[in-house]
Design brief:
globular, 10-stranded antiparallel beta sheet, mainly beta
């Protein structure tokens, strides 16, 4: 099953004990459910980076067991984050350079629509570099059929 969807993504971050920073984006995308029960959601988003608008392509993959989520971002920024594993080491690449970071998942949750389609994915996680916590974060992806 493949369908067009509207995607709303909220990224909530607390850095260095500062106040919560919330970034919201909305776009349209494609939701595809496969025969094995896995799901792939693809969408593009435009973000501001140092006064420039950049396009980032996103691919969110959910296995049938709902025990993890993989988020791959390509374009001006490239990263692959896996939520669900105790700790995932990623390379975060920006136009300014690359750095290695760890993603530590605190919680991962899915909410389904009545028809069994995933309607929301939420992940709470910590991003670290070495022993330093860079961000205590939450990501919420809302998926709505058109």
């Amino acid at each position: 099953m493949k369908k067009k969807v509207d995607i709303n993504v909220a990224g909530i971050h607390i850095r260095d004990g500062n106040e919560e920073e919330r970034i919201d984006t909305s776009s349209s995308g494609i939701y595809q459910a496969f025969a094995d029960g896995s799901v792939c959601i693809e969408y593009d988003e435009v973000q501001d980076m140092s006064g420039q608008r950049i396009k980032v392509a996103n691919k969110v993959t959910v296995p049938a067991d709902l025990k993890s989520v993989e988020v791959v971002r390509t374009g001006a920024m490239n990263s692959k984050m896996v939520f669900g594993a105790e700790e995932y080491v990623m390379d975060y690449k920006t136009p300014y350079g690359s750095m290695q970071m760890e993603v530590i998942t605190k919680s991962l949750d899915f909410k389904n629509e009545e028809n069994g389609v995933i309607g929301e994915i939420s992940a709470e996680y910590i991003i670290k570099s070495g022993d330093e916590v860079l961000s205590d974060s939450k990501m919420i992806i809302e998926i709505k059929a058109r």
